[in-house]
Design goal:
730 residues, alpha+beta, 9-stranded antiparallel sheet, 37 strands, 31% strand, globular
């Protein structure tokens, strides 16, 4: 709910549990007055105090008064070069060469519903689901307007932020920085939590107290990256899973980003998040516009868990565009770890036949089916079927798979090219490269210049021929290197600072075309696993391969960190063979299955090598997942323990919205002789309900399970796992 006080220029955004407020003051500076637990009908600008602060300049309108300075005022969108020395939200290079931006309130617009920014991903909602407030800020000298967009999803405690910059002047202006959100706090006793790692170890949470100065994470790799995720949290020092104030900030963007927090000289703090200013400079011709990516905020007065569940609910309903919405996704098998590049059509059908007999429903043909692709140094860019491997093409192969009762999916890596390819030999100028320099390679490949429409059109024409040649229901979109040598032959020198962002816009454009032309195809995103796991990609690819590390124990940590923002249904998770390819660890098949079930479930192994007993267990896993998939994907998610702090066991729980069903998963770590007995306290149940478990058929009250706990059985052996299904009884 958006409440307007026109007389005092106060704007209050209410959600179910929180309040966000801003006010244009006597100088028309838009101040941020409050964000936190819900407070009704109150002007909170009285929290802001003024006073003489040495070396903090005063705006001209203040006259001889020294009690007002932008350097200490909490602003809704921070300025640059006019008295605020803290993190700027915007930086303009004006025709005379100055770098200043002085923004003052100039009006507002209110509308029902929520729309996505043009050419960019965003949350969506109808007139009865969301409201949008647009506030106009103007730099009169620069003749530039900044439009601040606020989308309010009341029942999800979700507030979206987006920014649009318009050049109303007669001269060209250059935009050197344009953040998507600025969030000021009157205190600095906060912790910052970021989600970091590297390839095979993504999104590990790291928590530290704000300290004087600037702390930041980000990416200049051209992708949101394995190293740092574009989701961060600020929270009270005492906040945990169930208590304390916390703020989540997610950037819906798949390229270079920065999330920076500054603790200022007077113990205020500021979070600024948006496109990374590295190698970013956007030319705004007269009448030109620029739209920054959308960001999404959730504040929880009751700890991390409730924040996560609100993100999960909102993402599932108002961000994902999933062809399986309301239906269970098919369980898949991918042939990569079974065959790598060495396969024939008969070999693929053999794998599919083994999978179909176990109840698996979708066969995915991975890398190696096209061009001269017999290793990873050739063939990328030539998206034509290798007829030596697949005689008759997909037209012959897909019906053979479907005769087994399975759907068919395919792997592609559209953004890349090998030098040993027909495409590169014909168009070497289509790759990102700097004139006079030899390009660097990653995984033996170069990056196509997706900022160029002609390059995208050529790739899409090839993709359409493949996707239209047979009944394909799934596409795995991969991307296996970071961007280097970022220079485009299609842009003049003074616009090369646009290439990184135009590349991301190009990726979004091609994905949007796929969504338009093939709405029935489920697209799974992938970037060396989780290198581009972000809200931007989820708008186009409703599930993303969570990590190239498929080891069940490593995945506990990866999926735990991912869950702070992203729902289970978005995490691609597969059972793979042991010893694990990435680390050599051997874990039981039951454990691998339980870990992978907390995601978009599938298998990545040679099922023909499984023993009869292993096949029996796989059938049981498949049946169990089918029975509980709605609960797993649409239930409320509770982290019951942390794999980073508890080596004894890792546990998590999914609870149905009506709280009548719950599924608890427990994975044991390394065991010791004569271990103590443990009880596990559950969450999210109805304390008045009686619950029956499928593990011991006993009855437990919801109150006892949450307050006293459930007695965990003792297990002998490392990395064992089990699940408990609970159902309320009348």
């Amino acid at each position: 709910m958006i409440v307007l006080d026109r007389e005092h220029k106060i704007f209050t955004l209410h959600t179910q549990n929180t309040t966000y407020q801003m006010k244009a003051d006597q100088y028309n500076v838009l101040l941020h007055t409050y964000y936190g637990s819900r407070i009704d009908h109150f002007d909170l600008s009285g929290l802001i105090q003024c006073g003489n602060r040495s070396f903090s300049p005063n705006p001209n309108e203040a006259g001889r008064s020294r009690d007002y300075s932008l350097d200490v005022m909490p602003q809704e969108y921070s300025t640059c070069g006019v008295g605020d020395f803290r993190l700027p939200s915007i930086e303009l290079e004006l025709p005379g060469g100055s770098h200043t931006a002085d923004l003052r309130y100039a009006g507002f617009h209110l509308e029902k519903g929520k729309t996505t920014p043009e050419g960019l991903p965003g949350f969506h909602g109808g007139e009865d689901e969301a409201e949008t407030l647009v506030i106009f800020l103007k730099d009169s000298a620069a003749q530039v307007t900044v439009e601040l967009y606020y989308g309010v999803f009341e029942s999800f405690d979700l507030i979206t932020r987006a920014v649009r910059v318009v050049n109303h002047g007669a001269e060209t202006v250059r935009l050197c920085r344009c953040a998507s959100l600025c969030l000021d706090f009157l205190q600095s006793d906060l912790d910052m939590i970021t989600f970091n790692g590297h390839h095979l170890t993504e999104r590990c949470p790291d928590r530290g107290s704000l300290r004087p100065g600037i702390q930041s994470v980000g990416s200049v790799r051209g992708i949101s990256s394995h190293q740092h995720n574009p989701f961060v949290m600020l929270c009270g020092r005492d906040a945990d899973e169930d208590t304390g104030i916390c703020y989540g900030a997610m950037l819906l963007y798949s390229g270079n980003f920065e999330a920076a927090a500054e603790c200022s000289q007077y113990e205020n703090s500021r979070l600024v998040m948006g496109i990374h200013p590295y190698h970013f400079c956007w030319t705004l011709e007269p009448g030109g516009t620029f739209t920054a990516p959308e960001a999404a905020l959730v504040c929880s007065p009751n700890g991390f868990g409730e924040m996560s569940r609100q993100y999960h609910r909102a993402i599932r309903k108002h961000l994902l565009r999933d062809p399986y919405s309301g239906r269970r996704k098919p369980i898949l098998v991918n042939n990569w770890e079974a065959t790598y590049f060495d396969f024939t059509a008969d070999r693929l059908v053999e794998i599919a036949r083994e999978a179909a007999a176990l109840g698996i429903e979708l066969f995915v043909m991975d890398d190696g089916w096209f061009g001269s692709r017999n290793d990873d140094n050739r063939g990328l860019g030539d998206w034509q079927v290798n007829l030596e491997k697949l005689p008759g093409g997909l037209e012959a192969l897909v019906p053979r798979i479907q005769e087994l009762g399975m759907k068919f999916g395919i792997w592609m890596e559209p953004e890349m090219v090998n030098e040993d390819s027909s495409l590169y030999r014909a168009h070497p100028d289509w790759v990102l490269h700097v004139p006079g320099r030899s390009p660097s390679r990653g995984r033996g490949q170069l990056v196509l210049d997706f900022s160029r429409r002609d390059v995208r059109d050529s790739i899409y024409d090839q993709m359409k021929k493949i996707l239209s040649s047979a009944d394909i229901s799934y596409l795995k979109w991969d991307m296996n290197r970071s961007l280097t040598d970022v220079w485009s032959a299609s842009l003049p020198a003074h616009r090369q600072g646009e290439v990184f962002h135009r590349y991301v816009l190009g990726v979004y454009d091609l994905l949007e075309r796929l969504h338009r032309d093939y709405p029935h195809i489920l697209i799974e995103g992938c970037c060396g696993g989780g290198g581009r796991f972000d809200g931007g990609m989820l708008y186009y690819t409703p599930q993303i391969w969570c990590s190239d590390d498929t080891d069940a124990i490593d995945r506990l940590r990866i999926q735990y960190g991912t869950s702070f923002c992203y729902p289970v249904c978005t995490m691609g998770a597969h059972v793979s063979a042991v010893p694990n390819e990435q680390n050599g660890r051997i874990t039981p098949l039951e454990t691998r299955g339980i870990t992978a079930m907390s995601g978009a479930f599938g298998y990545e192994m040679d099922l023909g090598k499984c023993t009869a007993e292993e096949k029996r267990k796989i059938r049981c896993q498949v049946e169990r997942y089918k029975a509980y998939s709605d609960l797993i994907h649409n239930g409320d998610y509770y982290r019951l323990s942390s794999p980073f702090s508890d080596s004894t066991y890792t546990a998590w729980e999914q609870v149905s919205p009506d709280r009548r069903q719950a599924l608890v998963s427990v994975v044991q770590g390394c065991t010791n002789a004569a271990p103590p007995f443990y009880t596990l306290r559950l969450k999210g149940l109805n304390p008045a309900f009686q619950y029956q478990t499928d593990l011991d058929d006993a009855l437990y009250s919801g109150a006892s399970l949450m307050n006293a706990g459930y007695p965990l059985p003792q297990m002998q052996g490392d990395y064992l796992a089990f699940q408990i299904f609970l159902k309320a009884v009348e």
